[in-house]
Write a structure and sequence with these properties.
Elements: H1 2-20, H2 28-58, H3 99-102, E1 105-106, E2 111-116, E3 119-125, H4 126-132, E4 144-149, E5 152-158, H5 159-164, E6 168-169
């Protein structure tokens, strides 16, 4: 804002001095006008300088700590006062998931990938699901997959097919 103001004053003073200048001679009036314009610009500059000086004087620098990773000072209670903690009166327990959601979450440890001649197959092992998942019989049978590996015949449920059917991998 001050830059605009200074630019306006400077432009006005240049315009006034240009209009008042006579090519042949300069009279007393022209000299007075030029001095008044220079004085006006000087007064405005001084006001702006003082205002900036006040801003710098009121500016509070941020606190400097000894080490860049050190934490800000901690609160220490006065001597003789022991801080106390009131534990909650009840211990909230997480609610179990609804049955229709819980039977769509597949155990993480059953998710495996196997290398075959056709490429990598990602699936949920059938034995692992029978041991760790209650609703194996409700899994879609079109996702059931058998294939051979160098270690023998494997069977399970294809992960992409189960994902498309709405099943998800359980977290944790």
């Amino acid at each position: 804002m001050y830059r605009r103001f200074i630019a306006t004053i400077a432009a006005a003073s240049i315009a006034i001095t240009a209009m008042g200048a006579i090519p042949a001679h300069a009279g007393d009036r022209d000299t007075v006008r030029a001095l008044a314009a220079i004085l006006g610009v000087a007064v405005v500059g001084k006001i702006i300088h003082d205002n900036n000086k006040k801003k710098r004087a009121n500016h509070q620098p941020a606190p400097v700590y000894d080490h860049p990773r050190s934490a800000p000072p901690r609160y220490h209670p006065p001597r003789g006062v022991q801080p106390h903690h009131n534990p909650p009166r009840y211990h909230p327990q997480p609610r179990p998931l609804p049955r229709h959601v819980n039977n769509k979450l597949l155990p993480k440890q059953c998710f495996q990938s196997f290398d075959t001649r056709r490429g990598t197959i990602r699936m949920f092992g059938e034995r692992c699901l029978q041991r760790n998942f209650r609703h194996v019989k409700s899994l879609p049978q079109n996702c059931h997959y058998k294939f051979g590996t160098p270690n023998g015949l494997r069977s399970g449920f294809e992960a992409r097919c189960l994902r498309d059917a709405g099943y998800r991998l359980a977290r944790g």
